[in-house]
Structure formats: structure tokens, C-alpha cells
Write a structure and sequence with these properties.
Layout: E1 7-11, E2 14-18, H1 21-33, E3 39-44, H2 46-54, H3 56-63, E4 67-70, H4 73-83, H5 92-106, E5 109-114, H6 117-130, E6 135-140, H7 149-159, E7 163-167, H8 172-180, E8 188-191, H9 195-200, H10 208-212, H11 216-223, H12 233-249
Parallel strand pairs: 3-4, 3-8, 5-6, 5-7, 7-8
Antiparallel strand pairs: 1-2
Bound molecules: uridine-5'-diphosphate.
Length: 250
């Protein structure tokens, strides 16, 4: 049976899919069951929308993704407001453990690539405790040299992993995926940014209250002011969405 692709819409011209968390897990599972190769899942948030508007090559990389999850509340609000879509947030940091749970249940191996060695190693241990039976087919930290990449690709393919998580931060992880995906035998590749850091606890996720009210970005800004420069994109994003809405009403 053909796999139905989720409906792809856009925010300010940047593609994003209308999908729920369960829908994303189900879609990824079917891609594995049908042995589709190197289908990649990337996250869209306001910061990325702003970056993609300025970078054509990165835009092309994102446009080729199998799944573009609405990771940030700003993107979800824009999808609702500009297109009237009943859509919800699918945070990449929550999808990753959901895919691990599915992999443990189905006996699919995963490969963890990225983050500092202690974080990478620690998250493998933690994931094993969280999902008994999860097969960590392989792992590698995110500080390998460029000349080590062909060896890493061989290691990933030899591991037999079906899901590869790439934790190099954005846009490095997306550029890595673009460059190497057609050499990879895995079925699914997810770009997961700093998710391994949150799994081991070196970086805390926002408390439930902030997540519930879509204020995770605010919690991050207050607890990690070094990120403030990255969040400068937020007001510009909001302003562009308002302008787009006004334009649409004329
Ligand atoms: N990282 C890496 N190799 C690099 C640069 C970064 O493995 O050359 C890792 C870093 O250790 C961290 C993650 O990438 O675990 C970046 O996390 P961040 O929260 O900045 O990513 P975001 O989700 O915001 O893109």
C-alpha cells in the first residue's frame, strides 16, 4: 500500500508539514517497514524560517526532507493564523524518544551521531534504561574530522541501524545530512540538535508549565542568555507573519 504523505503547507514560503506526533511516528514506522532509504526528518521553528529565507542552499536541503515537523510554537501559530489549519506542535526533542520507543518495540537498531563524547555515551546509556530492549547499533560523537566521514558512513551502514539521529546543531546537521544521506543505508535520519544534551540532563528542558503555554523559547532565553542573539529572529518572524496576514486580507 502506498504511504500517504502528510499535507505540506508553508510559513512565509518555507515548507512545513501538517502532522501530529502520533502521525509522525506512524509515518516513520511505515517508511522503515517499506524499506525506504535515507528519508530525513527536520524541524521547523521561527529561527529556521528566518535562516532559510536568507540561505537558498539550506532552503533546498530542507525542501527535500521527507518530513518537516512544526517544532516551534511560533510556526504552529502562523500555520493556524495564516492558513486556518488545526495543527499542533511536534517538538523534535519529543519525537526522538518516541522513535526510540517504537524502535525498541519493533527491534530496529538506532545510531546516535553527534554531541560531546560524554553526552553521546551518557545518552546511549540513558536511552537503554528508558526503553529496555532498545538496540543501540552504534554511536559516534559529533567532533570527528571531515576526513573521518567516509569511515563514519561505513560504520553506520555496517551497524544495520534503521534510524540515525544526527545531533550537530543547526545548520551543521542539515548540511551533513544533505552531503551524506545518499551514501547511507538507514531508513530514517532525524536532525535532533541538542536533544542528547537534554536526555543526559546537561541542558534542562523547560518545565511543563512553559511547554504547555508555548513559552519554551522564553525559558531558554532566560536560562541561557547566550542564545539571545539567535532569538533576535523571533520578533522579525512575528512581524513578517503579521504583514503576510494583512496582505492576505487585502
Ligand atoms: N555539536 C556537535 N558537533 C559540532 C557542533 C555541535 O556535535 O561540531 C553538538 C553540540 O555538542 C550539541 C548540539 O550539537 O550537543 C547543538 O545543540 P544546540 O542546542 O545548539 O542545537 P539546536 O537544536 O539549537 O540546533
Amino acid at each position: 500500500m502506498a504511504i500517504n504523505k502528510p499535507v505540506r503547507t508553508d510559513v512565509l514560503g518555507i515548507p512545513v508539514d501538517c502532522i501530529t506526533m502520533d502521525g509522525a511516528v506512524d509515518y516513520a514506522t511505515r517508511l522503515i517497514d517499506e524499506n525506504k532509504k535515507a528519508c530525513y526528518i527536520l524541524a521547523i521553528n521561527p529561527e529556521k524560517v528566518m535562516a532559510l529565507l536568507k540561505n537558498t542552499s539550506l532552503f533546498k536541503t530542507f525542501s527535500s526532507a521527507e518530513l518537516l515537523i512544526p517544532d516551534g510554537i511560533g510556526v504552529v501559530m502562523a500555520m493556524r493564523w495564516l492558513h486556518g489549519l488545526e495543527t499542533v506542535r511536534v517538538p523534535g526533542s519529543e519525537l526522538m524518544p518516541r522513535l526510540c520507543a517504537m524502535a525498541a518495540e519493533k527491534g530496529y537498531g538506532i545510531f546516535l551521531y553527534g554531541s560531546q563524547e560524554d553526552v553521546n555515551h551518557g545518552s546511549a546509556e540513558k536511552l537503554n534504561q528508558m526503553y529496555p530492549g532498545l538496540k543501540i547499533a552504534g554511536r559516534a560523537n559529533g567532533y570527528l574530522k571531515e576526513e573521518e566521514m567516509p569511515e563514519l558512513v561505513k560504520q553506520i551502514n555496517a551497524s544495520g541501524a534503521k534510524i540515525l539521529f544526527v545531533a550537530l546543531g543547526s545548520p551543521k546537521q542539515e548540511q551533513w545530512i544533505q552531503k551524506w544521506s545518499d551514501k547511507l543505508d538507514v531508513n530514517i535520519i532525524q536532525g535532533i540538535g541538542g536533544t542528547l544534551d537534554t536526555i543526559v540532563g546537561t541542558v534542562k528542558r523547560a518545565p511543563a508549565f512553559f511547554c504547555r503555554f508555548g513559552l519554551e523559547w522564553f525559558y531558554r532565553l532566560v536560562t541561557n542568555p547566550q542564545r539571545a542573539s539567535r532569538q533576535k529572529a523571533l520578533p522579525v518572524f512575528a512581524w513578517k507573519v503579521i504583514k503576510e496576514k494583512v496582505k492576505g486580507k487585502k
